[in-house]
Design goal:
Elements: H1 2-14, H2 18-43, H3 45-69, E1 72-73, E2 76-77, H4 80-113, H5 117-126, H6 133-144, H7 148-179, H8 183-191, H9 194-235, H10 241-251, H11 258-273, H12 277-303, H13 311-325, H14 327-345, H15 351-357, H16 379-390
Helix pairs in contact: 3-4, 3-7, 3-16, 4-7, 5-6, 5-11, 8-9, 9-10, 9-12, 9-14, 9-16, 10-11, 11-12, 13-14, 14-15
Length: about 400
């Protein structure tokens, strides 16, 4: 009896059910797969960032090309290939112009920043003067230990990679336009079912519509904010007004924290250059008002219910993609989050993730996407989503 009592518990522990083993193996394989994907995301970040930006630019211009290709001038019709070539040329020209502007402003700032190094260090230390002279001197000594020249060299090196990144983006955009004609056929062949292919195309179309609206509204608001900051600094005769306006435009694409960082940088630049602290405080207040009115009043009015994303989810997405891809990852965090939320909303096992990422717990409201995959979609909605997603004529 004693032998049986000793063997039974150990054999019971050793005998795991098949479901428990399968569940354990699934979790282990999932962890390994996530680690591998994360490793590849970090190692191939240069190419993947360029590819992600190229896909976004392609989706932004695909609808416009479809509309242009349907126009008729008398008896003549603009060919789809001609509209695609013009779009690639315009995208390449815009990206090269923007890259040249950014590089020139970075070089201007870097070449003149060294002359402001001592003033900047003293200005930072003076912020703590109200705590006593000892604290101010301690802060000044700490700030002077920072190797400003090393950071400037690193920034100059990062600026040098902008042009190569832009060239890679242009190449990706060109190849995407070459493939757009055959995307619908490939999707149907891959799915093996027209109804399922149209459903997948509708999901892609939903992602594209939301991301496009988000980017267009963000570009409009960021442009207005950058111009307003430029005009404000120009009125106070602050150097680097163009650079600060461009920096504000770029940082405003980072949700939540981008506008705060831009406001602090603009205030610090003004504080270093102005002899009176009251002027820097006034610039800080006016810049904050501009950011608040455009970012918290106008932006939600234009955006409407396009995204319906959880604010906490946005912060988590910013932290994750910022850790993986740095600053470019923070710019792409919201589009990626939109894609993940919409895709997970159509996968029953992953729908809880979509609910957590959504603001009201309603990740998807578009009727055609919620139908059974084997039920043909209504012709109007299906064709519209399909054309939007693949850029077909």
């Amino acid at each position: 009896m004693s032998d049986k009592s000793n063997v039974a518990p150990s054999s019971g522990i050793a005998r795991l059910s098949f479901n428990e083993k399968f569940r354990l193996q699934t979790w282990l394989m999932g962890i390994i797969a996530f680690a591998v994907v994360l490793f590849l995301l970090v190692q191939a970040r240069f190419i993947l960032i360029a590819l992600a930006i190229a896909i976004i630019l392609f989706s932004l211009t695909s609808d416009a090309i479809n509309s242009i290709s349907r126009l008729r001038i008398g008896q003549f019709r603009i060919a789809n290939w001609l509209a695609s070539i013009v779009a690639v040329i315009l995208i390449a020209s815009g990206l090269l112009t923007l890259a040249g502007l950014v590089i020139s402003q970075i070089n201007t700032v870097l070449t003149t920043t060294l002359s402001y190094t001592d003033d900047a260090q003293r200005a930072v230390a003076q912020m703590f003067s109200w705590m006593g002279e000892d604290v101010e001197q301690s802060v000044l000594q700490t700030v002077r230990t920072i190797e400003v020249s090393g950071y400037l060299r690193s920034a100059a090196g990062q600026a040098g990679t902008i042009l190569s990144q832009v060239v890679l983006i242009i190449l990706f955009v060109g190849f995407l336009f070459l493939e757009r004609v055959w995307f619908g056929t490939k999707l149907e062949t891959l799915m093996g079912d027209k109804a399922q292919a149209r459903r997948v195309s509708a999901i892609i179309g939903s992602i594209i519509r939301r991301v496009n609206r988000y980017l267009l509204v963000k570009a409009l608001i960021s442009s207005a904010t950058g111009v307003a900051v430029f005009l404000l600094l120009s009125v106070f005769d602050i150097q680097f007004a163009v650079a600060m306006g461009l920096l504000t435009f770029v940082l405003n694409f980072i949700p939540s924290v981008g506008s705060i960082i831009a406001t602090l940088i603009v205030t610090l630049v003004a504080y270093i250059q102005t002899p009176e602290p009251q002027t820097a405080v006034l610039i800080f207040v006016l810049t904050g008002m501009i950011q608040f009115i455009l970012g918290n009043v106008i932006d939600p009015m234009l955006m409407g219910k396009t995204l319906r994303l959880s604010a906490f989810g946005i912060i988590i997405s910013l932290a994750f993609w910022g850790a993986v891809w740095g600053v470019p990852g923070m710019f792409l965090a919201v589009p990626f989050m939109v894609a993940v939320m919409i895709v997970c909303s159509h996968i029953p096992a992953a729908r809880p993730v979509a609910i957590l990422l959504s603001r009201e717990g309603l990740p998807e409201e578009e009727f055609p996407l919620m139908q059974d995959p084997h039920t043909p979609l209504p012709e109007g909605n299906a064709d519209r989503s399909y054309g939007h997603a693949v850029g077909a004529e």
